[in-house]
């Protein structure tokens, strides 16, 4: 036997351990993995299993706001056609303001004299400022062609719908907003600018004041009212949504039959087709978690 081989010290290889920090282990490469590396692999651990009915119920909020914006467009159209005069618009504004205030107070559970006076004071300042600015809005776009105004107004409304917060996450309590996002601010501003552009094409200053008050009431306070109703009772939220859909479809049908078919198809697409697509897409969701993920440190602080 070779003496060099007999005199070589026997070396035992240490067992490989998975360590987060501490460098290379002696006898193993830095990228070494043993047979147990894939034993902790988990597939689709964080994938949410969605229910078709639940997704359809959640999509009702989108259809509800689509109907609200469509009703605003219908009021604009009837006002431009002189079907609605100034007195009718002012009566509509007062009715909507009183109804919305009652809904917020009852569903929000915040009935008090101080809160009522606070809201009344803010509404008075808001209405007075809007009445003073009405002559400016009336002549704001006099040098711009009507075709450009209509095109920009439609684009701004589409931008408003695209960026609107349909989940109501920015609404906290009656009359308050919590951490408004950039997209929600852009959405609100686009609706206000669209209202100003449309109001600048009306024949009188009182028309401008009435339509601006109506538009700002809807775009500013409708998300708050619908949020309070949904929080108070989900069944009432569904009932209100279906009533709005029926009312909107009825008015759209009286305006034009083709618009009725298009809007009905849009509601079906939002409430049925999109939830179905979402459920079907879940079948192709594939997520893998394992030892290659970033380490999550947990600290147990005890006295």
Could you walk me through the main structural features you see in this protein, from its secondary elements to its overall organization?
The protein has 303 residues and is mostly helical. The chain has one domain (60-282). It has helices spanning 3-6, 52-80, 86-108, 113-138, 146-163, 182-199, 205-232, 234-255, 257-282, and strands at 42-43, 171-173, 176-177, 288-289. The strands form two sheets. A two-stranded antiparallel sheet has the order 1-4. A two-stranded antiparallel ribbon has the order 2-3. Helix 2 (52-80) runs antiparallel to helix 7 and helix 2 runs antiparallel to helix 9. The longest helix is centred in the N-terminal third of the chain and has 29 residues, at 52-80. It is elongated, with a radius of gyration of 31 Å. Residues 1-11 and 173-177 have low confidence and may be disordered.
């Amino acid at each position: 036997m070779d003496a060099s081989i007999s005199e070589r010290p026997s070396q035992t290889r240490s067992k490989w351990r998975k360590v987060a920090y501490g460098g290379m282990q002696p006898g193993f490469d830095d990228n070494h993995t043993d047979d147990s590396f894939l034993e902790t692999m988990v597939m689709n651990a964080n994938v949410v299993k969605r229910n078709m009915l639940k997704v359809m119920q959640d999509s009702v909020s989108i259809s509800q706001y689509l109907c609200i914006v469509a009703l605003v467009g219908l009021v604009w159209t009837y006002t431009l056609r002189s079907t609605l005069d100034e007195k009718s618009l002012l009566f509509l504004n007062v009715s909507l303001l009183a109804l919305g205030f009652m809904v917020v107070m009852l569903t929000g559970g915040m009935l008090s004299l101080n809160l009522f006076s606070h809201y009344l004071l803010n509404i008075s300042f808001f209405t007075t400022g809007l009445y003073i600015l009405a002559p400016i809005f009336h002549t704001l776009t006099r040098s711009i062609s009507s075709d450009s105004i209509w095109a920009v107004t439609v684009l701004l409304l589409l931008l408003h719908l695209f960026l609107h917060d349909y989940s109501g996450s920015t609404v906290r309590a009656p009359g308050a907003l919590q951490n408004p996002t950039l997209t929600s601010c852009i959405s609100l501003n686009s609706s206000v600018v669209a209202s100003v552009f449309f109001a600048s094409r009306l024949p009188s200053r009182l028309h401008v004041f009435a339509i601006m008050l109506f538009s700002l009431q809807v775009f500013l306070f409708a998300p708050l009212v619908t949020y309070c109703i949904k929080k108070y009772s989900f069944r009432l939220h569904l009932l209100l949504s279906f009533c709005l859909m029926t009312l909107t479809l009825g008015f759209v049908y009286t305006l034009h039959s083709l618009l009725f078919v298009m809007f009905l198809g849009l509601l079906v697409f939002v409430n049925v087709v999109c939830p179905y697509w979402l459920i079907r897409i879940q079948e192709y969701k594939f997520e893998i978690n394992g030892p290659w993920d970033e380490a999550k440190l947990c600290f147990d602080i005890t006295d």
